[in-house]
Design goal:
Blueprint lengths: L7 E3 L2 E4 L2 E5 L3 E9 L13 E10 L41 E4 L10 E9 L14 E8 L5 E10 L4 E10 L4 E14 L4 E7 L7 E7 L2 E6 L9 E9 L4 E7 L5 E7 L5 E7 L6 E4 L3 E3 L3 E6 L2 H16 L12 E3 L1 H4 L5 H14 L3 E4 L27 H11 L3 E6 L3 E3 L3 H5 L18 E3 L5 H18 L3 E4 L16 H22 L4 E4 L9 H4 L4 E3 L6 H11 L8 E5 L12 H8 L3 E4 L8 H23 L1 E6 L7 E7 L5 E8 L8 E2 L9 E6 L12 E3 H7 L1 E2 L17 E9 L1
Parallel strand pairs: 22-23, 22-31, 23-24, 24-27, 27-28, 28-29, 29-30, 30-31
Antiparallel strand pairs: 1-2, 2-3, 3-4, 4-5, 6-11, 7-8, 8-9, 9-10, 10-20, 10-21, 11-18, 11-19, 12-13, 12-15, 14-17, 15-16, 16-21, 17-18, 25-26, 32-33, 33-34, 34-39, 35-38, 36-37, 36-39
Helix pairs in contact: 6-7
Bound molecules: (2R,3S,4R,5S)-2-(hydroxymethyl)piperidine-3,4,5-triol.
(2R,3S,4R,5S)-2-(hydroxymethyl)piperidine-3,4,5-triol (DGJ) binds next to loops.
Length: 743
């Protein structure tokens, strides 16, 4: 631990005098250690220091001058209250929303933290909960309030290759018998600007991650969830653009529970962003000697939104995804839900499996309805054994039959819920969230199981493991169709800790299962995409994006989701056309829009005529040929449908720029034709151009063009709508995919 201010150089973190510099490939973060010169100084003998953030932006490596680093002026020198604090607390005199609030045993809520020192950790600070893996280096800063004994450890980990910095805090009670902390943000990031654009990704069931942007020049903006999970409503990912310096910042949280992102703009000072667990209903007890580690907050800064998206994708693929699935191609799956719902029956499933194999599908998934007491959604959750009436020869035999056809096999579970009408509830009502005196609030006839109870985790681990082993599962769809209403554990957990301990229980179960079965692929889901976050992605490399696979809505859901999360994580299926939404589209268009992620088909394929199955087979052949490019290629927005809701187009480019796919979508009939442009190609290379053959389109393209022609002039595809279709106004989506390859 060092308080010293001498010069030393250590790869990505170095310090000089009272500055600490952190460098990723293209960004720098600088802290300044300052002498505390506030008015009580006359009563205090020893020197005291505090730490502030002086810069976060594009790399300073070039300009680094040990004597006088060119940093943003902060106006008031040594004014603790208005300074760019990274760990503000109530009672330290600062003027903005604080990141730490502790109720002390002497009934005060004052915490005054002073800087004590720092050290550098090779790699990251290990934690058992979800975290970014393989940090390059970590700066560990220690602050302490000597009066209350509250100690705060800040860990800033560098992910050099992705240009991402991750921060978490550990709060330690060193002195009091017990204290209660009410708020502990993981990250406090000051921004030197008084006018910001904030972008969030909000929605509801079937409308996940819709982009919204607002301008804030004064006041406090909050993006949060208090439903027990990260939620459909407000994803924890936010972008903040500094309108004065034109810098783009983005933040996320490696957490699946209640989150809160606060942006405060002070017209006379600066702005700041707080990211962490939501303090709504939160109160955590720390006995003497105990500590609490916050989840990790992720931050990135860049000069454009495109750059932000690239860095976030890179970071998630390299540092969040389970290493057994890092850049590993995801299988093409068949899912029974849309085609069969609860009408699960061995004979028809085997027939579907035959068709699935015939068209090239690789993984066969039986969704809800396979287990005991589950004729519909009113019963059975918790009874994780196969229904013998539906699988007369048992699930083991059924799985063998599927494998014999050359398909992998997967099943659906909803571990965090329990049906009142279930054997588990009858035997163990104490496993459910039941507040004494109240009828539990049932939604979809189900209540939430008490994931904070160790016995529940043991039960679920045992039951799920049994099925995994019996059926030799390759895949699990992990659903969660609830919000928490009856937050309660009869094991005596304090109510202010419950929501956090619930999600810790979910993580423990996921951790035990993924450790025991490292090759098991888990796809998470939460009534569609209601828990799309970095905490869940740490265990489940892909997430079902939405129950809405209608091409029109899916375009918006994909466009929003891919701002923050890479294609490989985004579960998307071709299902039957939804005429009910008024936006109908052909099988080819449904493929073009849904194939951009972890892909599959979700309909009773037996109902498709020979012609459609032929189309599906060709689609799957195309997908297999370009799967790695589609799932892991560098993703660029060309036409963002949140900017102009008539078009959505994007490009995925291979790392060596030798191959790319341009996907173009017209989102309503009769929109003006446009030229469609590539991005990210090698301007001087010559590319062969090939349109994905579609049953409803036959366009002759120039055989070859240079990268710069493809990017600057683009391709004129004429009108995209299906000329043969007289009923044009009942359809709504027209799309194409163009593949280019360097000659
Ligand atoms: C909600 C999911 O989003 C659907 O895909 C499906 O798995 C159902 N639950 C099953 O109950």
């Amino acid at each position: 631990m060092s308080l010293c201010f001498t010069h030393i150089y250590i790869t990505m973190i170095n310090f000089d005098k009272n500055f600490i510099y952190l460098h990723t490939k293209n960004t720098s973060l600088v802290f300044e250690i300052k002498k505390y010169l506030y008015e009580d100084e006359k009563y205090i003998k020893e020197d005291r220091y505090f730490i502030t953030q002086r810069y976060y932006g594009p790399s300073l490596k070039e300009e680094l001058s040990p004597k006088e680093p060119l940093l943003r002026p902060n106006g008031s020198s040594n004014d603790y209250c208005n300074d760019y604090l990274i760990s503000s607390s109530f009672g330290n005199g600062n003027n903005s929303e604080v990141s730490l609030l502790v109720f002390n045993e002497n009934n005060s809520a004052v915490t005054r933290l002073f800087y004590k020192g720092f050290d550098i950790i090779k790699g990251g600070k290990d934690v058992k909960v979800p975290h970014a893996r393989n940090a390059s280096e970590t700066l560990h800063i220690v602050e302490k309030d000597d009066v209350s004994g509250i100690e705060v450890h800040l860990y800033y980990s560098l992910f050099e290759d992705s240009d991402v910095i991750v921060c978490k805090k550990e709060i330690v009670n060193t002195k009091q018998n017990v204290c209660f902390f009410r708020k502990a943000s993981s990250l406090e990031c000051p921004i030197n600007c008084k006018n910001v654009l904030i972008t969030t990704f909000d929605g509801a069931w079937t409308k996940e991650r819709t982009r919204h942007t607002l301008n804030l020049s004064s006041g406090v903006f909050v993006n949060q969830s208090f439903l027990g999970s990260s939620s459909h409503k407000h994803n924890p990912y936010i972008e903040v653009v500094d309108n004065e310096n034109k810098l783009h910042y983005a933040f996320n949280l490696v957490y699946s529970g209640n989150h809160k992102e606060t942006v405060e703009v002070n017209p006379t000072e600066h702005s700041s962003v707080l990211v962490g667990i939501n303090d709504f209903g939160f109160e955590y007890a720390l006995n003497k000697g105990e500590s609490f580690m916050t989840p990790e907050a992720v931050m990135v800064v860049a000069k454009s939104t495109d750059e932000i998206t690239f860095k976030m994708h890179n970071f998630i693929n390299n540092h969040i995804i389970n290493p057994s699935y890092r850049y590993k191609d995801r299988p093409i799956l068949f899912n029974s839900w849309e085609g069969s719902t609860f009408k699960i029956e061995e004979k028809s499933l085997l027939e579907m499996a035959d068709v699935a194999k015939q068209v090239g599908i690789e993984l066969f998934v039986v969704d809800d309805g396979w287990f005991s007491n589950r004729p519909n959604d009113q019963s059975g959750l918790g009874d994780w054994t196969a229904d013998n009436n539906k699988f007369p020869s048992g699930i083991k035999k059924f799985a063998e039959k599927i494998r014999e056809k050359g398909l992998k096999f997967g099943l659906w579970f909803e571990p965090e819920s329990i049906s009142i009408n279930s054997d588990l509830f009858r035997k163990h009502p104490e496993f459910a969230q039941l507040v004494p005196g109240y009828n539990p609030f049932a939604r979809r006839h189900q209540i939430v199981i008490d994931m904070a109870n160790k016995k529940v985790i043991d039960y679920l681990f045992e039951m799920i493991s049994k099925v995994i082993e019996e059926a030799e599962l390759d895949y699990i769809k992990w659903d969660y169709n609830r919000l928490i209403t009856d937050a309660y554990s009869n094991t005596g957990i304090r109510c202010g800790e419950y929501m956090h301990r619930f999600i810790m229980g979910t993580y423990e179960l996921l951790d035990r299962l993924t450790t025991k079965y490292p090759n098991l692929l888990i796809e998470s889901c939460s009534s569609g995409g209601g828990r799309y976050d970095l905490g869940i992605l740490y265990y489940t490399p892909q997430i079902w994006g939405s129950d809405n696979s209608n091409s029109f809505y899916r375009s918006f859901i994909a466009c929003g989701t891919l701002s923050a999360y890479p294609q490989s994580t985004f579960g998307a299926h071709v299902s039957r056309d939804y005429s009910v939404t008024g936006h109908r589209s052909s099988l080819e268009d449904r493929f073009n829009i849904n194939c951009l992620g972890a892909f599959g088909y979700e309909m009773d394929l037996r109902q498709d005529g020979k012609e459609d199955l032929e189309i599906i087979k060709k689609q799957i052949d195309f997908y297999k040929k370009h799967r790695h490019l589609i799932q892991f290629g560098h993703y660029y927005y060309v036409d963002n449908c949140f900017d102009d809701d008539r078009y959505y187009s994007f490009v995925v480019v291979s790392e060596n720029k030798k191959e790319a796919i341009l996907s173009v979508v017209e989102l309503s009939p009769g929109v003006p034709n446009k030229t469609w442009k590539f991005k990210g190609l090698n301007p001087t290379a010559i590319y062969e151009i090939e349109m994905r053959p579609q049953a409803n389109a036959d366009i002759k393209l120039l055989p070859k063009l240079s990268g710069s022609e493809l990017m600057d002039t683009g391709l004129d595809l004429g009108s995209l709508y299906d000329e043969k279709d007289n009923n044009v106004f009942q359809k709504g989506i027209y799309s194409r995919m163009i593949f280019v390859k360097e000659v």
